[in-house]
Amino acid sequence: MRFTKILTVALLSLQCMAFFGMSGKAEAAQYGTSDISAQLFSGEQQQTTRQVYNPLAGPQYPIIQDSYFTDDYGNILMIVNVLGEVNKQGQLVVRENVDFATILALAGGIKQEANLKKVVVARQNPEKNGIQAYTIDIKKYYKHGDRSSFIALKPNDTIIIPEKAISLTKIARVMSIIYPWVSIYNIIQSN
Description:
6 strands
């Protein structure tokens, strides 16, 4: 199936060259190959992939992580870290005035065990007033759209979304450990 697709593409390419008055050998000489058809049918193919432009990906050169930088369109970007109860933890390249809803969406959303009342934003360097960490209640935002506890993020901030103290998942984990031992104890006691 793949060979027939390659053969079809090769034949269409040769027909186009003939239609426009170009010979394959002239083009091959121009590009430094001996014969185009030999390359097409030799089984050796060069795969070229074109990189899709992503404005939030940042530049293709090394950057200092604790500073702002710009993309090709002049958007001001920064790196933030997301840890804890999200589906995709790690570094994110985001725009300068990003809000928590966007960051949580880029991190793949929150897990069911996430404690949204005690989200921590840890700064790399303390602020002028000495504060290095903030606690934010994102649950108010999810319930009422209240953004009053949001803070402006800075480069290399780390957003930590903790796990709930008690959840059904934790209870199930504990019970899965305890239940077999209780069963064994009951069997021993009955004998």
